[in-house]
Amino acid sequence: MKICIVHNSYGKLSGEEIVVNNIQRLLQERGHDVIPFFRSSDEIEQMHFGRVKAFFSGVYSFSSRKTFRGLLNERKPDIVHIHNLFPLISPSILGECRKAAIPVVMTVHNYRLICPNGLFMTKGDICEACSGGKEYWCILRNCEKSFSKSLGYALRNYTARTLQLFLKNVNLFATLTKFQRQKLIEASYPPERIQIIPNAVSTSGEFGTNDEVGAYVGYIGRVSPEKGISVLLEAARRCPEIPFKVAGACDRMNELRSLAPSNLEFVGHLDPDVVGAFYAKSRIIVLPSIWYEGFPMVIAEAMSYGKAVIVSRIGGFPEIVDDGMTGLMFEPGDSTCLAEKIRYLWGNPDICRRMGKAGKEKASHEYSASKYYDRLLMAYRKAALLRNREKAR
User: Fold this and answer.
1) How many other β-carbons are positioned within 10 Å of the β-carbon of residue 301?
2) Is 322 exposed, middle or buried (0-12, 13-18, 19+ CB in 10 A)?
């Protein structure tokens, strides 16, 4: 099968980039011909008037549409798999898939189909004001802390919605959780065109044996406000006897280094070849997010390493973590409750091992590469069926 993967990377390594790379590798390993149509936001800084161009290309890019048309005519893929289109590709290319009668699957990594900034969050609080075609709230609340960015984000969502660029041209939407699926349904996306495909574990040593109880409470991922890092710092301050380590670049919250308690260490961004050791040497992995999240790879990876996890009870987390079995949950933003959960598991290493074992079994069954591949192929077949029905009308 010839599969065209479309993605505009963010310029900095993220979970989404890792997922896209893993999908490309998985499909190639299974014998498929993968045709990449990639752009990177890094390009913006290299362009003359790059930010101005990105503003308009995010709304509608005639050049991307023309280039993509040429690719489709030359390579003639059997399926187009969309990931991120903003800001350099844009939804303008989707019409070319429809003209060429090529089925389209779109993986919904975040909430950008409904919320201009993709987070359902503004100024540190959950916000769904833009739902139902009210993108102007992104401008009024200046969600991006920049009028031009907020305006651009609102305009591109407004354009895509009013022209129905996604609804008319994407055959199947692949959400990561039931929670995401429900949000799309609430926004009038057809339920029969939404399939749930959770992310797959990306570790090279997935489901390996790890009997170490671990020497610290770990966090790994983006160090940014929506991830609840401030909540984690406060919980660490309440547990001075327990060591904490935070892995991730701190450029968005540099001030946290001076605010962190003495028992919490920022270890910076970790290269892929040492991430496994970070998991293996931890006792508990914590994700204290205060936004809805999608499907953080960290949860499945921690489970695959046999680690108990503690996560906030928000978004799709309750679908991934079985409270009391593979980990524990706490109310988002409640550092006191988080500290209690951490202290409880830290003092009961046997419970950590039991939860880690249950988590590893779930990850092996639900989040393996082979399971993901089966689900993805099913989505491709369904998208082709839907496209054929549309042609027959």
Assistant:
1) 24
2) middle
The answer to whether position 212 is within a domain reads no
118 and 180 co-located in one domain: yes
Domain co-membership, 178 together with 271: no
- Is 334 in the same domain as 224? yes
Q: Are residues 42 and 186 in the same domain?
A: yes
Amino acid type, 25: R
Whether the per-residue pLDDT at 239 is higher than 50: the answer is: yes
Rounded to whole angstroms, the Cα distance separating 263 from 242 reads 7
Nearest to 87 by CA among 60, 110, 106: 60
Q: What does the DSSP assignment read for 23-90? A: HHHHHHHTT-EEEEEEEEGGGGGGSTTHHHHHHHHHH--HHHHHHHHHHHHHH--SEEEE---TTTT-
Q: Does residue 185 sit in the same domain as residue 234?
A: no
Element (H or E) spanning 99, and its range? helix 94-99
Name which of 125, 77, 116, 122 is nearest 97 in CA terms.
77
Q: What is the CATH number of the domain that holds 333?
A: 3.40.50.2000
Is pLDDT at 238 greater than 60 in this prediction?
A: yes
Whether a cis peptide bond, with omega within 30° of 0, leads into 198 is no
Q: In this predicted model, what pLDDT tens digit does every residue of 124-134 receive, in sequence order? A: 999 999 999 99
Q: How many domains does the chain have?
A: 2
Residue 209 lies in a domain: no
Q: What is the pLDDT of residues 162-187, one digit of tens each?
A: 999 999 999 999 999 999 999 999 99
Q: What's the chain's average pLDDT?
A: 94
On whether the CB atoms of residues 305 and 203 are closer than 8 A, the answer is yes
